[in-house]
Design a protein that fits this description.
- The chain is an alpha/beta fold.
- It is built from 12 helices and 13 strands.
- The strands form 3 sheets. It has a 7-stranded mixed beta sheet, with helices on both faces. The chain has a 3-stranded antiparallel beta sheet with strand order 7-6-11, with no helix packed on it. A 3-stranded antiparallel beta sheet has the order 10-12-13.
- Helix 1 runs antiparallel to helix 8 and helix 8 crosses helix 12.
- The chain binds pyridoxal-5'-phosphate (PLP).
- The site of pyridoxal-5'-phosphate has 14 residues, from helix 4 and helix 5.
Length: 383
């Protein structure tokens, strides 16, 4: 009997390695609130991610919300509907209005040629997503932000460890937010990090994630509780030791998928960042990008391929292989938003959401299973 294959499977250290990391907690009894393991992980991540300022938090979603709060944004934020619903919720829950920009279908990141026409006097920021780990056009987005005095917050939940011309991806924008959820390339069970340019924000983030406390008697803002606990930080320290090896294994899986699925009419792969350098064509050599192989999305053109995405999804499920429709629907079409936003205003995002299927991908996925999954996918088509 074959085991179910889910879209992802969390990386975990050996039990003993984790046990060693948490053993001291039975003596110290310091389980959360900026403990020793938390401090160690924060330092290690700054180094690994190549960022100056980093604040650990309890999840990627609150990283986004706290960023909007700390930057004191108001009015409208230009963002993408082709993402996990958290991105959109973070804006709405902070009392702001998301304005949806369409995507470039080639890599599903924000189409930078469509941003400026969405800017109004209420716009305070741009919140793009490095979706699937595909890097946004960093230079074009910064140019637009500078021209109009806007802040930039990147949802970098998919982008752990990626580099652009040797520079850690978390160092771009005013703020970059990572998620360390169990399903991500690097995880702390639940967790996240806020990376930011202005070191003056450190005290603010530190306070806001702890109810706004700056000392025992002082509260500087309506903060929340977003502190990472020691057990989560310990999982992070262990996983960080192995993450390069895990990414190397993911790379092998991705290469095997690409080999198996190339050249099929109507099946388009979207397997990585497209090097983009601002708006101009002649800005020197393409940037060098270090990827992390976070996801493996494929797009089906129903006519050309001979089957639609839902058919492929269903066929895989019948073989106990559970791919996911990441991202379907676009966030603007969810029940809580469909009366307020019009998904047809972002036609490329809408089309991508109807065609995409994200295939199982994790470090320990057996290459024989990759072959089997690819075979089933090919079998759904007409050639
Ligand atoms: C996972 C994810 C989040 C939310 O992160 P959590 O750690 O689960 O709160 C936000 N945005 C994107 C794009 C994500 O994939």
């Amino acid at each position: 009997m074959q085991q179910d294959i889910l879209v992802t499977r969390s990386s975990m250290p050996d039990f003993e390695e984790y046990a060693d990391e948490i053993r001291g907690l039975w003596d110290s009894r310091w389980l959360t609130n900026n403990g020793a393991i938390h401090k160690k992980l924060e330092a290690a991540l700054k180094e690994y991610l190549g960022v100056e300022n980093l604040e650990l938090v309890v999840n990627g979603h609150l990283a986004l919300e706290l960023s909007i709060q700390a930057l004191e944004l108001t009015g409208e934020i230009i963002t993408t509907p082709f993402t996990f619903v958290s991105t959109t919720h973070s804006i709405v829950r902070q009392g702001l209005t998301p304005v949806f920009c369409d995507i470039d279908p080639a890599d599903c990141t924000m189409d930078v040629t469509k941003i400026e026409s969405l800017i109004t006097e209420k716009t305070s920021a741009i919140l793009p997503v490095h979706v699937y780990g595909n890097l946004c056009n960093l230079e074009a987005i910064q140019e637009i932000a500078d021209r109009h005095g806007l802040k930039v917050i990147y949802d970098a939940a998919h982008t752990f460890g990626e580099k652009y011309d040797g520079q850690g991806i978390g160092s771009f924008g005013d703020v970059s937010c990572f998620s360390f959820h169990a399903t991500k390339v690097f995880h702390t069970i639940e967790g996240g990090a806020i990376c930011f340019k202005d070191s003056a924000l450190k005290a603010k983030f530190h306070a806001l994630k702890d109810f706004g406390f700056t000392g025992s008697d002082e509260v500087i803002g309506e903060g929340t509780n977003a502190k990472m606990n020691e057990f989560a930080a310990a999982m992070g320290l262990c996983n960080l030791r192995h993450v390069d090896g895990e990414i190397a294994k993911r790379k092998k899986v991705v290469e095997r998928y690409r080999e198996n699925l190339k050249g099929i009419p109507g099946l388009r792969l979207c397997g990585g960042s497209i090097p983009k350098r601002g708006f101009s064509e002649n800005r020197g050599p393409a940037p060098e990008i270090l990827p992390n192989y976070a996801y493996f999305p494929v797009f089906f053109d129903p006519e050309e391929f001979g089957a639609d995405r839902d058919t492929v999804w269903q066929t895989l499920a019948e073989h106990r292989i559970f791919a996911r429709k990441y991202f379907y629907p676009v966030t603007s079409a969810f029940a809580c938003y469909r009366d307020r936003f019009d998904p047809s205003l972002t036609p490329e995002a809408l089309r991508a959401s109807e065609r995409v299927l994200t295939l199982p991908l994790y470090a320990d996925l057996d290459l024989k299973d990759v072959d089997r999954i690819a075979e089933i996918v090919r079998g759904c088509g007409k050639v």
